[in-house]
Design brief:
It is a single chain. The chain has helices at residues 2-5, 8-16, 38-48, 105-112, 142-153; strands at 23-27, 31-35, 62-63, 68-69, 73-75, 82-86, 92-96, 101-104, 115-116, 130-136, 158-162, 166-172. It is an alpha+beta fold and 198 residues long. Strands 8-7-6-5-9 form a 5-stranded antiparallel β-sheet, covered by helices on one side. It has a 3-stranded antiparallel β-sheet with strand order 10-12-11. Strands 1-2 form a two-stranded antiparallel sheet. The longest helix is centred in the last third of the chain and has 12 residues, at 142-153.
Length: 198
């Protein structure tokens, strides 16, 4: 429920204000869990599902004239890793972590010969809804996970919004047969045995 509906706190808030009908059931000595009937679940799904207007828009993470995505990984013989970001003035460029420097996009391409590490385009999956994930920007797995999503799922199947301390991801639900799974120690697995994104 949490992945499909947003935060646990928002679900509890709706239960407490009566928007979601749920039965409180004692669990252990001091805890309570809530049981939601199928009918209440279906009613609540519309209430908690982000609307199209709340989802990130493509311009928030994609720069079409340069065919780049926010946080996309670039490199060259001069720079081992550069990430596409926007500065405070909302200008697209590169962040060079090894020297903690921001470069305008054109300068990174011209002077540092930066090139993308992977393609960002894949075929669009049939629409079956979106999975919503929120990842802290300082998470160890943040960049490897974003790289995996761009390379394997493609920007056509993602929506991304940068927030103050986290990144909000909407990933189109579906299946990518014969693609590698994301593997990173300590990161929660989001694939079932048939490699469906849940």
């Amino acid at each position: 429920m949490q992945r499909n509906w947003g935060s646990v706190q928002s679900v509890y808030k709706y239960i407490q204000d009566g928007s979601i009908k749920a039965e409180a059931v004692p669990y252990g000595d001091e805890r309570t869990i809530y049981v939601i009937s199928e009918t209440a679940y279906e009613e609540a799904a519309g209430l908690l599902k982000p609307s199209e207007s709340q989802r990130p828009k493509r311009f928030e993470y994609y720069y079409p004239s340069q065919d780049i995505d926010i946080f996309q990984k670039f490199h060259s013989s001069k720079v081992p890793e550069a990430r596409v970001i926007r500065n405070k003035d909302n200008e697209w460029g590169f962040y060079l972590a090894n020297i903690q420097k921001w470069l305008p996009f054109e300068k990174g391409i011209r002077e540092y010969q930066l090139k993308p590490v992977y393609p960002i385009h894949q075929s669009t999956l049939e629409y079956k809804g979106y999975v919503e994930l929120e990842i802290p920007k300082d998470a160890v797995v943040f960049y490897p996970f974003v790289d995996y999503l761009y390379e394997t799922w493609g920007m056509e199947n993602l929506r991304l919004r940068e927030q103050d301390h986290t990144i909000l991801l909407f990933i189109r639900a579906g299946e990518r047969p014969n693609y590698k799974e994301f593997q990173c120690r300590g990161y929660p697995v989001i694939f079932n045995k048939r490699r469906h994104l849940q």
